[in-house]
Amino acid sequence: MSKIVAAEMLEPGEIVLKDFPVPQIEDDAILMKVVAVGICGSDKHMFAGKMNVSWPLIPGHELSGIVEKIGKNANNTMKIVGGIIKEGDSITVTPGSQSCSKCWYCVHVPHRPQLCPNRTVFGFRSSKDSPHLFGAFSEYMYIPGNSFVLKIPEGLSLERATLCEPLSVAQRAVSRGLSPGIPNAGEGIGIGVRCAVMGVGPIGLLVVATLRSMGVGEIIAVDASKERLDFSKKFGATQLIDISELGMEDRKDKILSFTDNVGPDVVIECAGVPSAFSEGLDLVRRGGKLIEVGHYGDPGSVDIRPHQVCNKDVDILGSWAYPQVQFEPAIEMLLRTNLPIDDIFTHKMSLENIEQGIEITGTSKCLKVIVSP
């Protein structure tokens, strides 16, 4: 191997295949052969210039691969789940590095390592820095010693393992509803609880799948795409609300009819559309929970009435990424679920067609593009 080919995003709207030198790995690092990588909505936002990043960069953070080379100290410096890592092992890697352990957030809220401002993130880190290969839109990826690595267990395909990252986002959002403000029956997410999911793109669909796996009762999927709504039934949605066919008051009435005329116990906003947040606040019942996970980017603001928050006695909870250990229950669910999870992969492409994959991501006919470099 004399060179490594990667798709480098030079600036918004421009991504090219480029040759990079094969790196000499440090004693605490891994060189991973990328087997599969999913295209995320954030990759599309990045391509459109809607992300605050340092150019150029190699995107790709939903990944799996095989250990090509491993430094002699990597097993000591990395955080590893699943046992000792060796060459030839199948692995996935959390995009976020280990937290610094020294900043205010690491000291005071160590259970939320994703808040550490000193982390680096695969797929978002500039490729100006040697050895450049910090994203999975590449034949190989360089994994430094401050990474969090998980062995992929036997029985879990490398393609399905790319869903560890978006499923971790979904599971963390759902878990935010597990912590009741007062520990009484009827608080938060649980068996038989009624939930509405605003937006059933890839994250929303994996939220639906997580809720179904937890034994939730009614799962009301809300979206403007008939294709996505129909697909959500495969993952466990019980009621479908097509906002392209129903006005706001009509769909509110329909959702109330599914929930004893009080509204869902929990509403999870996954659409990333500001109006969906305010509508979720309208829909959630008094004493319920509204969880916001869709706005990783910032598309703007929306008016809300503070009185409504008080009057409803509602818990509003944000969900930003996940602790790295969230990958472990994600792996368990992907390994054991009876849901047709692989059906979410609607398009498979090579690295040469990466721009086409980015362009179709987020369209009604596309759920998830998976790339084999």
Q: CATH superfamily assignment of the largest domain?
A: Medium-chain alcohol dehydrogenases, catalytic domain
- Mean pLDDT rating: 95
Order of helices and strands: EEEHEHEEHEEHHEHEHEHEHEHEHEHE
Write down the CATH topology of the largest domain: Quinone Oxidoreductase, Chain A, domain 1
Structural class: alpha/beta
The major pleated sheet works out as: 8 strands, mixed
Number of domains: 2
The CATH architecture of the largest domain can be given as Alpha-Beta Complex
Distance between the termini: 15 Å
Q: What's the helical proportion of residues?
A: 25-40%
> Which consecutive residue ranges, at least 5 long each, have pLDDT under 50?
none
Number of DSSP E strands = 16
Radius of gyration: 21 Å
Global outline: globular
Q: What's the total helix number?
A: 12
Q: Any overview of this molecule?
A:
This protein has about 375 residues and is an alpha/beta fold. It is about 25% helix and about 25% strand. It has 2 domains: about 5-160 and about 340-370, Alpha-Beta Complex (Quinone Oxidoreductase, Chain A, domain 1), CATH 3.90.180.10; about 170-320, Rossmann fold (3-Layer(aba) Sandwich).
Which labels suit this protein?
373 residues; alpha/beta; Quinone Oxidoreductase, Chain A, domain 1; Rossmann fold; 2 domains; 8-stranded mixed beta sheet; 6-stranded parallel beta sheet; 12 helices; globular
